[in-house]
Description:
- The chain is mainly alpha-helical.
- About 55% of the residues lie in helices and about 10% in strands.
- Keywords: Coiled coil.
Amino acid sequence: MAVLDDFPDIAIQIPQDEHFNLERRYRTHRSTVAEKWRSFTKNQRAHLCRRLFSKYNLREPVDAKLVIHASQLMSADAENVPTFSALAPELHPLRICADVDYLLNLLEERATKSLFELYKATDYSKVMEVLVLPEGISTVNCPGMIYTTFTEGTPYVVQEEWKGDGDQPISDEPLGDGPPSCVPGIVGMFVLERQAHLAEELGLLIALILKEDNPVWPSLDTDIEQLGSQSKTKFHDVARDRDSAVVGIAELPAIIDAFAVMLKCASSQVVANPATLFEAIRAFRLSSAGRVPDKHGESMLLISDKHNSVALVELFQSDMTKITVWNYLTCVLERYASHLDDPAYCEILLQEISNICALVFECYQANFQRMFQTLTGAGLFRRLTTKTTKSGEPCIVTETEPDKLPEPLQFKHHLLRMCSPGITITKALQYHDKTSDWSLKPDSDLDWTTYEMDSYFSMISAVIMLDGISEAIPQLPNPSTRKGRHFSRRLEQLDKEMNLLKTEIDLVDFLSPLECITEPGVAVAATDALDSFMLEKAGAKFSHLYQDLIEESLADLDRRCREAKAQQEKEQDQSLWLSAFQGGDEEARQELVEQRRLKEKTRPAHSSIYDLARTPEDAPPIADDAASAEVPHFTVTASTKEVFATLLDKSSAAKGSITWADFIASMAELRFSIIPKMGSVYAFLPPKAMNAQRSLTIHRPHQSKIEGTLLSYYASRLRHVFGWDENTFETS
Length: 732
């Protein structure tokens, strides 16, 4: 008698994840789905069914071998997994379209009952009619046979092997009027496949119903955009940024601060623009470390909509980390510029600047590798199951040595080098130059995605900024893994705390399905729910955690500088930040959370520049004479008026775009002096006749167009610095 192998554990997890998705989608959108479904015509219902069940055939039997094969394909995250009509006869299009109430009743039954309750309601005789067992397999007690028991508690499925006469016979006692409590393993797999198939198709049908006649929802079938020639243009633009002049130390803080402001504005605009937020969350879910195969070639199958919550938190965590390190670097540079004649201060501050520059690059490098390792670089990386990073994330290493890649894959060779741990800023620029040179070849094929390209050029822009800092401060020491790591350690501990909490955060009501985030007000509601959760679990809002990180680190830095100046040798950095999560000290962590709660009560409204949903228009007014001065009106040409109308008109529902050249020409027409600074930084100095008290420092976009979130960023800067609006300009 043949012996069946145990079927994969993933086959047990899939129906539970799919059922979770169906349950949450139905609970959140029950009334909307019912209202829209009843309003559809019979043709509309048929059209929706056709998209999901176009090849439905009730006469097709289910071969047990194919069911096993399908489970193996699903566990490998493969495409084109075969589906079987007989798995779910309830979903026949004729049944769904004939009676409006049929689908609504089916949804209520499948979404409100547990998997065990649904199994109890199974007609076991019909299951055996459609299941074609492999030759030699019996459903009676057989030595070596794997049997499956369905339970009401946890775990849902238990597998047992009946070894023969010495064992107690397998129980086939029926569950009331339903199927037996224990069935052969092959039948158990069929039941699991059926439950997963039904839940998945019904969940997709809910998404299709919600999307119908809803213009704000993105397409459910969109693929990741592949880019080729566009990236060559960006390589050329980045090359121009390398030619900028060296700036003085006194100018560095303002330039770095402008970069941080741009990042904050861009992050706020992502929340304000639901379509952009949808793509960003999708990118982080697709690039999860669990999707990288381990040494056995197996990756985690991230089906549950709970992973949308994790992706949203990781997105905000990534953005907030970048903003925080740039802001902290600005503060350290300001202290260095004001203590150039103090050797005791300079020694500590220079090491701090060097370490933070290295940390900035690590942040951007990690973000690029995250996108690259699961998309164009898929197959070049491996996930370690026995090792994690300092923040508790799965450790990812390169599977292939870059030098072993063939000549046609030299593009990936250079990108792999960019992902190498410990790479310096100088080396990163060298590998970028090689990548740029390779991209200029006529036969080069830059087949990568928009997610990878955006993260890559963000990394290169940061590298150019950091290289400019090293040129402005030639005496900058090498980064140290021991000296001056106080801010880095605090950030590591905060990352570890976030990684512990992100799996507990439940934002599924806003993100199931993910396209719901594009609905008006949902993004802001999701960020509010995230802040409420963090306030309860961590003692402070998400944004305040990072603001406190900077304040704590700067206070500690100032203390160390004072101690160094007084030549006092004391134990350094006994902060609660470092003890709260070391050695599993839960008491110290609770003390830290309580301190945050007390501090949170004394904060005024909008006290943090890091607030997730805070837009640039919420910024405090300018603290100079320009704030109270009457905003002038300008008479300009039609082309210049069109440029500023595109930028400043808030009533425009769908903004267009303007070119960088047109923006430069418009500012020049107003007699602004345009001075290129470090990297892609440009300063716009107003003419004396304008009587403006401040200049405008902004970053030129990677590409020639100003659009999307950048358009809102430029507009917010013009409003904030000069007080301009859509009524400021008129034609002659």
